[in-house]
Each structure stands twice: as C-alpha cells, then as structure tokens.
Amino acid sequence: MAFLAHVGLLVRDLDRSRRFYVDVLGCRERRSVDRPGTRLLFLESGSSLIELVEKAGRPYPEVSCPTIHLAFQVDSVADEIARLKVLGLSLDSEEPIPFGGKSIFFFSGPDGERIELCEPLE
C-alpha cells in the first residue's frame, strides 16, 4: 500500500522559507541537500514532512501551483492568530472561520502559498 511520504513545495528563496516554516510555524529541520542548481530542505511537522525546493537560475513560475493549501493543526486558532500578529505577519483577515464546532484560518506564506491553521476535530 502506498502512503504519502512528503509534500514538495517550490520556493523562491530557501533561506526565507526556512525562517517562515521553522520560526513561524514551528517545523523542525530534518535534512538538507545541495545539488548543482537545486537546494532542498526537508522539514518535520508532527509526523509529516515538507520538502522545500529552490531551483537556482530558473524562473519561478508566476502561475499559482495546483496545491490549494498546507494545513497545520494547532490547539487554538485564535491564539495562533494573535501570535502571528505579534510577529508582524500580514494577514488577509483576523477572524477565525467556524468549522465543525472548531475553527480554521487561512493566510499566505512567503511565496503566496496558502497556509491553513486548523483545530483538531476529535
């Protein structure tokens, strides 16, 4: 049976994206790989892996990627919104969205990727 190993995300600036995913979202660096023309960084978020991919010397596609969002589970969406505001992040809104008796919230990462914060539904 196949299972999801990781999600790959093309980024413009690996160092900027590393700071966002580690400092803002709390991911942990697992390993990095530098190859000619490509830098990779694997990050852990719980039991999930995110692979950040920077392609040097190639234009970043200006068409939005088909991935609609990356979701990170948090204990309290409202607390996270307050923390993001303290960090000075530009947010589309400041209100959580009710969802199944809990809350979710969307904002953008450094390359415009959509990030969802969600509370556990159990």
Automatic annotation (TrEMBL):
Domain VOC residue range list: 3-120
Record flagged with keyword S-adenosyl-L-methionine: no
Keyword Cell cycle: no
GO MF entry, a single one: methylmalonyl-CoA epimerase activity
Top-level lineage group: Bacteria
Pfam families named in the record: Glyoxalase
Alphabetic keyword roster: Metal-binding
GO BP, sorted A to Z: L-methylmalonyl-CoA metabolic process
Entry-linked InterPro entries: Glyas_Bleomycin-R_OHBP_Dase, Glyas_Fos-R_dOase_dom, MMCE/EMCE_epimerase, VOC_core
PANTHER family: METHYLMALONYL-COA EPIMERASE, METHYLMALONYL-COA EPIMERASE, MITOCHONDRIAL
Protein name: VOC family protein
Native organism taxonomy: Bacteria, Thermotogati, Synergistota, Synergistia, Synergistales
